[in-house]
């Protein structure tokens, strides 16, 4: 474990973070965390906490964290979707080899509706991408 603490701490919340400045340079050598801002990743907003004025360094660190956090969340979303594909495959195998009639009755309607909804969205989005690609290819021929 490192003996040196980072100068900032980000307490993650669903759509951003509370930002704290970390201070160990006090008389008691205690860790003090002073909240300096609230960050909203969805709209890119950085609000200073209370009557604070954020320094250029504060803003630089916060913006860098926001960029990294956005990338991390996007990677996790893709990983979650790929896990869902695995779960669907495992569910298919379970339904085919192990599920009882009562179990299938319990889950079939909700699973079929969810899969139908997903299929509809994926099909529509795929068609939109194909049409957009065709339109772009048609425009580049000009």
From TrEMBL:
It comes from the Bacteria. This is Uncharacterized protein.
